[in-house]
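Journal club prep, notes for RB
We'll compare a predicted complex against what the paper describes. Inputs for the adenosine-5'-diphosphate case:
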Amino acid sequence: NAKALVFSGIQPTGIPHLGNYLGALESWVQLQEQFSRVLYSIVDLHSVTIPQDPSTLRQSVLDMTACLLACGIDPEKSILFQQSEVSEHAELAWILGCLTSIPRVRHLPQWKVKSQTQKSEGSVGLFTYPVLQCADILLYKSTHVPVGDDQVTHMELAQETARIFNKKYGDFFPVPKAILSATKKVKSLRDPTVKMSKSDPQKLATVTITDSPEEIMLKFRKAVTDCTSAVTYDPEGRPGVSNLISVHAAVLRLTPEEVVAQNVGLDTEHYKRVVSEAVIETLSPIRDEIVRLKADPGYLRTVLDRGAEKAKELAGPVYQEVRRLVGF
Ligand code: ADP
Ligand code: NA
Protein backbone atom coordinates (compact mmCIF):
# COMPACT_ATOMS: atom_id res chain seq x y z
CA ASN A 1 0.00 0.00 0.00
CA ALA A 2 1.70 3.17 -1.26
CA LYS A 3 -0.24 5.36 1.17
CA ALA A 4 0.74 3.36 4.25
CA LEU A 5 3.07 5.18 6.61
CA VAL A 6 4.26 4.13 10.05
CA PHE A 7 5.08 6.76 12.65
CA SER A 8 6.19 6.34 16.23
CA GLY A 9 8.06 8.41 18.79
CA ILE A 10 10.20 7.79 21.84
CA GLN A 11 11.26 10.29 24.45
CA PRO A 12 15.00 10.76 24.93
CA THR A 13 14.83 9.82 28.58
CA GLY A 14 17.49 7.40 29.66
CA ILE A 15 18.60 4.07 28.30
CA PRO A 16 15.72 1.82 27.17
CA HIS A 17 15.00 -1.18 29.39
CA LEU A 18 14.19 -4.76 28.52
CA GLY A 19 10.45 -3.95 28.48
CA ASN A 20 10.95 -1.08 26.03
CA TYR A 21 13.07 -3.37 23.84
CA LEU A 22 10.76 -6.40 23.81
CA GLY A 23 7.52 -4.40 23.94
CA ALA A 24 8.34 -1.67 21.43
CA LEU A 25 11.76 -1.37 19.82
CA GLU A 26 11.96 -4.92 18.54
CA SER A 27 8.68 -4.47 16.68
CA TRP A 28 9.87 -1.10 15.34
CA VAL A 29 12.74 -2.99 13.71
CA GLN A 30 10.35 -5.52 12.18
CA LEU A 31 8.03 -2.81 10.84
CA GLN A 32 10.89 -1.49 8.70
CA GLU A 33 10.64 -4.70 6.67
CA GLN A 34 6.84 -4.66 6.43
CA PHE A 35 6.27 -1.05 5.36
CA SER A 36 8.06 1.07 2.79
CA ARG A 37 7.55 4.38 4.65
CA VAL A 38 8.55 4.34 8.30
CA LEU A 39 9.39 7.30 10.55
CA TYR A 40 10.78 7.15 14.09
CA SER A 41 11.14 10.36 16.02
CA ILE A 42 13.11 11.13 19.15
CA VAL A 43 10.49 13.39 20.64
CA ASP A 44 12.51 15.99 22.50
CA LEU A 45 9.66 18.53 22.47
CA HIS A 46 7.82 16.11 24.73
CA SER A 47 10.80 15.89 27.10
CA VAL A 48 10.60 19.54 28.07
CA THR A 49 7.05 19.18 29.38
CA ILE A 50 8.72 18.40 32.71
CA PRO A 51 11.85 20.13 34.11
CA GLN A 52 14.86 19.24 31.98
CA ASP A 53 18.57 20.01 32.12
CA PRO A 54 19.88 21.28 28.73
CA SER A 55 23.17 19.37 28.63
CA THR A 56 21.49 16.17 29.82
CA LEU A 57 18.83 16.55 27.15
CA ARG A 58 21.41 17.13 24.42
CA GLN A 59 23.32 14.01 25.49
CA SER A 60 20.14 11.95 25.89
CA VAL A 61 19.11 12.61 22.29
CA LEU A 62 22.45 11.22 21.06
CA ASP A 63 22.27 8.30 23.49
CA MET A 64 18.78 7.37 22.30
CA THR A 65 19.96 7.61 18.69
CA ALA A 66 22.77 5.17 19.49
CA CYS A 67 20.31 2.84 21.24
CA LEU A 68 17.84 2.82 18.36
CA LEU A 69 20.53 2.19 15.76
CA ALA A 70 22.06 -0.55 17.92
CA CYS A 71 18.65 -2.23 18.28
CA GLY A 72 18.44 -2.43 14.50
CA ILE A 73 16.76 0.76 13.29
CA ASP A 74 18.34 1.24 9.89
CA PRO A 75 18.49 4.84 8.62
CA GLU A 76 18.28 3.52 5.06
CA LYS A 77 14.95 1.87 5.84
CA SER A 78 13.44 4.31 8.34
CA ILE A 79 13.56 8.04 8.72
CA LEU A 80 15.10 8.50 12.16
CA PHE A 81 14.99 12.11 13.33
CA GLN A 82 14.88 14.55 16.21
CA GLN A 83 11.40 16.07 16.55
CA SER A 84 12.53 19.65 17.34
CA GLU A 85 14.44 19.82 14.05
CA VAL A 86 11.14 19.69 12.16
CA SER A 87 9.34 22.85 13.29
CA GLU A 88 6.07 21.82 11.64
CA HIS A 89 5.36 19.51 14.61
CA ALA A 90 4.86 22.49 16.92
CA GLU A 91 3.09 24.54 14.24
CA LEU A 92 0.54 21.83 13.48
CA ALA A 93 0.07 21.22 17.21
CA TRP A 94 -1.07 24.83 17.54
CA ILE A 95 -3.73 24.42 14.87
CA LEU A 96 -4.92 21.07 16.26
CA GLY A 97 -4.96 22.50 19.79
CA CYS A 98 -7.46 25.09 18.57
CA LEU A 99 -9.75 22.23 17.46
CA THR A 100 -9.49 20.32 20.76
CA SER A 101 -11.64 21.03 23.80
CA ILE A 102 -10.08 21.52 27.24
CA PRO A 103 -12.33 18.90 28.94
CA ARG A 104 -11.37 16.33 26.28
CA VAL A 105 -7.70 16.68 27.26
CA ARG A 106 -8.36 17.08 30.98
CA HIS A 107 -10.06 13.68 31.08
CA LEU A 108 -7.11 11.78 29.61
CA PRO A 109 -5.82 9.38 32.27
CA GLN A 110 -2.15 10.31 31.72
CA TRP A 111 -2.79 13.97 32.55
CA LYS A 112 -4.32 12.95 35.86
CA VAL A 113 -1.37 10.70 36.73
CA LYS A 114 1.42 12.94 35.43
CA SER A 115 0.12 16.20 36.87
CA GLN A 116 -0.26 14.54 40.27
CA THR A 117 3.36 13.37 40.28
CA GLN A 118 4.62 16.91 39.58
CA LYS A 119 5.49 19.17 42.49
CA SER A 120 3.68 22.09 40.88
CA GLU A 121 0.29 21.93 39.18
CA GLY A 122 1.96 20.96 35.89
CA SER A 123 2.77 23.11 32.86
CA VAL A 124 0.51 24.04 29.97
CA GLY A 125 2.92 22.01 27.83
CA LEU A 126 2.36 18.90 29.93
CA PHE A 127 -1.38 19.44 29.65
CA THR A 128 -1.37 19.78 25.86
CA TYR A 129 1.28 17.18 25.05
CA PRO A 130 -1.33 14.70 23.76
CA VAL A 131 -2.24 17.36 21.16
CA LEU A 132 1.43 17.53 20.15
CA GLN A 133 1.31 13.75 19.79
CA CYS A 134 -1.67 14.14 17.45
CA ALA A 135 0.39 16.57 15.39
CA ASP A 136 3.39 14.18 15.37
CA ILE A 137 1.18 11.51 13.85
CA LEU A 138 -0.98 13.57 11.48
CA LEU A 139 1.89 15.71 10.12
CA TYR A 140 2.98 12.76 7.96
CA LYS A 141 -0.54 11.56 7.19
CA SER A 142 0.47 8.44 9.14
CA THR A 143 -1.74 5.39 8.78
CA HIS A 144 -0.17 3.05 11.37
CA VAL A 145 1.19 3.89 14.80
CA PRO A 146 2.85 1.26 16.98
CA VAL A 147 1.96 2.15 20.60
CA GLY A 148 1.87 0.62 24.03
CA ASP A 149 -1.53 -0.01 25.60
CA ASP A 150 -0.90 2.98 27.90
CA GLN A 151 -1.09 5.21 24.81
CA VAL A 152 -4.39 3.91 23.45
CA THR A 153 -6.38 6.86 24.81
CA HIS A 154 -3.98 9.26 23.07
CA MET A 155 -4.38 7.34 19.82
CA GLU A 156 -8.13 7.76 20.16
CA LEU A 157 -7.58 11.49 20.52
CA ALA A 158 -5.47 11.49 17.34
CA GLN A 159 -8.21 9.62 15.47
CA GLU A 160 -10.86 11.98 16.76
CA THR A 161 -8.76 15.05 15.92
CA ALA A 162 -8.27 13.79 12.35
CA ARG A 163 -12.04 13.42 12.04
CA ILE A 164 -12.72 16.86 13.52
CA PHE A 165 -10.23 18.46 11.14
CA ASN A 166 -11.65 16.57 8.15
CA LYS A 167 -15.21 17.56 9.06
CA LYS A 168 -14.29 21.23 9.29
CA TYR A 169 -11.83 21.59 6.43
CA GLY A 170 -12.59 18.68 4.10
CA ASP A 171 -11.30 15.14 3.92
CA PHE A 172 -7.56 15.49 4.43
CA PHE A 173 -6.01 13.31 7.15
CA PRO A 174 -6.25 9.52 7.11
CA VAL A 175 -7.57 8.24 10.44
CA PRO A 176 -4.50 6.48 11.87
CA LYS A 177 -4.67 2.95 13.28
CA ALA A 178 -2.84 1.80 16.39
CA ILE A 179 -0.59 -1.24 16.12
CA LEU A 180 -0.61 -2.76 19.59
CA SER A 181 2.35 -4.79 20.77
CA ALA A 182 1.65 -8.51 20.89
CA THR A 183 4.28 -8.96 23.59
CA LYS A 184 3.10 -9.32 27.16
CA LYS A 185 4.29 -6.50 29.41
CA VAL A 186 7.63 -7.24 31.02
CA LYS A 187 7.21 -7.02 34.80
CA SER A 188 9.46 -5.50 37.43
CA LEU A 189 11.96 -8.08 38.66
CA ARG A 190 11.36 -6.90 42.24
CA ASP A 191 7.56 -6.79 42.06
CA PRO A 192 6.05 -8.94 39.30
CA THR A 193 2.63 -7.35 39.80
CA VAL A 194 3.77 -4.06 38.18
CA LYS A 195 5.41 -3.44 34.81
CA MET A 196 9.12 -2.88 34.42
CA SER A 197 9.54 0.89 34.16
CA LYS A 198 12.37 3.38 33.94
CA SER A 199 10.80 5.35 36.76
CA ASP A 200 11.05 2.39 39.16
CA PRO A 201 13.34 3.53 42.01
CA GLN A 202 13.99 -0.04 43.20
CA LYS A 203 17.50 -1.21 42.54
CA LEU A 204 17.67 -4.46 40.56
CA ALA A 205 14.06 -4.13 39.32
CA THR A 206 14.88 -3.01 35.79
CA VAL A 207 17.29 -4.49 33.23
CA THR A 208 18.51 -1.85 30.78
CA ILE A 209 19.85 -2.72 27.33
CA THR A 210 23.33 -1.54 28.35
CA ASP A 211 23.60 -3.63 31.52
CA SER A 212 26.73 -5.79 31.70
CA PRO A 213 26.37 -9.59 31.74
CA GLU A 214 27.25 -9.50 35.46
CA GLU A 215 24.49 -6.97 36.19
CA ILE A 216 21.96 -8.99 34.20
CA MET A 217 22.95 -12.20 36.04
CA LEU A 218 22.62 -10.46 39.40
CA LYS A 219 19.24 -8.88 38.62
CA PHE A 220 17.73 -12.16 37.49
CA ARG A 221 19.28 -14.01 40.43
CA LYS A 222 17.53 -11.56 42.77
CA ALA A 223 14.25 -11.66 40.83
CA VAL A 224 11.25 -12.17 43.10
CA THR A 225 9.53 -15.52 42.50
CA ASP A 226 7.58 -17.62 45.00
CA CYS A 227 8.09 -20.62 47.26
CA THR A 228 7.34 -23.20 44.57
CA SER A 229 10.49 -24.22 42.72
CA ALA A 230 9.00 -25.82 39.59
CA VAL A 231 9.02 -23.93 36.28
CA THR A 232 5.33 -23.53 35.41
CA TYR A 233 3.51 -20.81 33.50
CA ASP A 234 0.65 -19.27 35.47
CA PRO A 235 0.67 -15.45 35.15
CA GLU A 236 -2.14 -15.01 37.69
CA GLY A 237 -1.05 -17.46 40.35
CA ARG A 238 2.72 -17.29 39.83
CA PRO A 239 3.52 -13.86 38.33
CA GLY A 240 7.25 -13.96 39.17
CA VAL A 241 8.29 -17.14 37.42
CA SER A 242 5.76 -16.47 34.65
CA ASN A 243 7.47 -13.14 33.95
CA LEU A 244 10.79 -14.98 33.60
CA ILE A 245 9.15 -17.44 31.22
CA SER A 246 7.59 -14.73 29.06
CA VAL A 247 10.88 -12.78 28.88
CA HIS A 248 12.64 -16.01 27.95
CA ALA A 249 9.99 -16.80 25.33
CA ALA A 250 10.25 -13.30 23.87
CA VAL A 251 14.03 -13.37 23.45
CA LEU A 252 13.92 -16.88 21.94
CA ARG A 253 10.83 -16.05 19.85
CA LEU A 254 9.02 -19.08 21.24
CA THR A 255 5.75 -19.46 23.13
CA PRO A 256 5.74 -19.70 26.93
CA GLU A 257 4.54 -23.30 26.60
CA GLU A 258 7.51 -24.20 24.38
CA VAL A 259 9.90 -22.58 26.85
CA VAL A 260 8.34 -24.46 29.77
CA ALA A 261 8.58 -27.74 27.85
CA GLN A 262 12.31 -27.12 27.26
CA ASN A 263 12.96 -26.42 30.94
CA VAL A 264 10.86 -28.95 32.82
CA GLY A 265 12.76 -30.39 35.73
CA LEU A 266 14.79 -27.23 36.42
CA ASP A 267 14.21 -25.45 39.72
CA THR A 268 13.64 -21.69 39.62
CA GLU A 269 17.17 -20.92 40.88
CA HIS A 270 18.73 -22.80 37.98
CA TYR A 271 16.08 -21.48 35.58
CA LYS A 272 16.97 -17.87 36.46
CA ARG A 273 20.50 -18.59 35.21
CA VAL A 274 19.15 -20.03 31.97
CA VAL A 275 16.96 -16.95 31.41
CA SER A 276 19.79 -14.52 32.18
CA GLU A 277 22.05 -16.27 29.70
CA ALA A 278 19.41 -15.96 26.98
CA VAL A 279 18.89 -12.27 27.80
CA ILE A 280 22.65 -11.67 27.80
CA GLU A 281 22.93 -13.32 24.40
CA THR A 282 20.25 -10.98 23.02
CA LEU A 283 21.50 -7.79 24.65
CA SER A 284 25.30 -8.21 24.40
CA PRO A 285 25.62 -7.36 20.70
CA ILE A 286 23.31 -4.37 21.22
CA ARG A 287 25.36 -3.18 24.17
CA ASP A 288 28.63 -3.47 22.21
CA GLU A 289 27.11 -1.56 19.31
CA ILE A 290 25.90 1.24 21.63
CA VAL A 291 29.43 1.64 23.01
CA ARG A 292 30.83 1.77 19.47
CA LEU A 293 28.24 4.31 18.27
CA LYS A 294 28.49 6.56 21.31
CA ALA A 295 32.19 7.00 20.59
CA ASP A 296 31.21 8.74 17.32
CA PRO A 297 28.76 11.54 18.18
CA GLY A 298 29.50 13.18 14.80
CA TYR A 299 28.05 10.16 13.02
CA LEU A 300 24.98 10.15 15.28
CA ARG A 301 24.43 13.85 14.55
CA THR A 302 24.72 13.18 10.81
CA VAL A 303 22.11 10.41 10.99
CA LEU A 304 19.70 12.72 12.79
CA ASP A 305 20.29 15.67 10.46
CA ARG A 306 19.76 13.54 7.35
CA GLY A 307 16.65 12.09 8.96
CA ALA A 308 15.31 15.56 9.69
CA GLU A 309 15.85 16.60 6.06
CA LYS A 310 13.84 13.61 4.85
CA ALA A 311 11.13 14.20 7.46
CA LYS A 312 10.83 17.83 6.37
CA GLU A 313 10.38 16.73 2.76
CA LEU A 314 7.28 14.83 3.88
CA ALA A 315 6.04 17.29 6.50
CA GLY A 316 6.49 20.49 4.47
CA PRO A 317 3.89 19.86 1.75
CA VAL A 318 1.36 18.46 4.25
CA TYR A 319 1.71 21.49 6.47
CA GLN A 320 1.50 23.92 3.54
CA GLU A 321 -1.78 22.29 2.56
CA VAL A 322 -3.02 22.56 6.16
CA ARG A 323 -2.20 26.27 6.13
CA ARG A 324 -4.14 26.73 2.92
CA LEU A 325 -7.14 24.79 4.28
CA VAL A 326 -7.14 26.80 7.51
CA GLY A 327 -6.93 30.07 5.63
CA PHE A 328 -3.40 31.26 6.50
P1 ADP B 1 8.39 3.59 30.88
O1 ADP B 1 7.07 3.06 31.37
O2 ADP B 1 9.54 2.77 31.34
O3 ADP B 1 8.53 5.07 31.15
P2 ADP B 1 7.66 4.39 28.24
O4 ADP B 1 6.33 4.80 28.75
O5 ADP B 1 8.62 5.44 27.80
O6 ADP B 1 8.35 3.43 29.31
O7 ADP B 1 7.40 3.37 27.06
C1 ADP B 1 8.06 3.35 25.81
C2 ADP B 1 7.51 2.14 25.06
O8 ADP B 1 7.88 0.93 25.73
C3 ADP B 1 5.99 2.10 24.96
O9 ADP B 1 5.62 1.54 23.70
C4 ADP B 1 5.59 1.18 26.08
O10 ADP B 1 4.34 0.54 25.87
C5 ADP B 1 6.72 0.17 26.07
N1 ADP B 1 6.92 -0.38 27.41
C6 ADP B 1 7.21 0.33 28.53
N2 ADP B 1 7.36 -0.48 29.58
C7 ADP B 1 7.16 -1.74 29.12
C8 ADP B 1 7.18 -3.04 29.74
N3 ADP B 1 7.47 -3.19 31.02
N4 ADP B 1 6.93 -4.11 28.97
C9 ADP B 1 6.66 -3.97 27.66
N5 ADP B 1 6.62 -2.80 27.01
C10 ADP B 1 6.87 -1.69 27.73
NA1 NA C 1 4.64 4.81 30.23
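Talking point for the session: The two ends are 32 Å apart (CA to CA).
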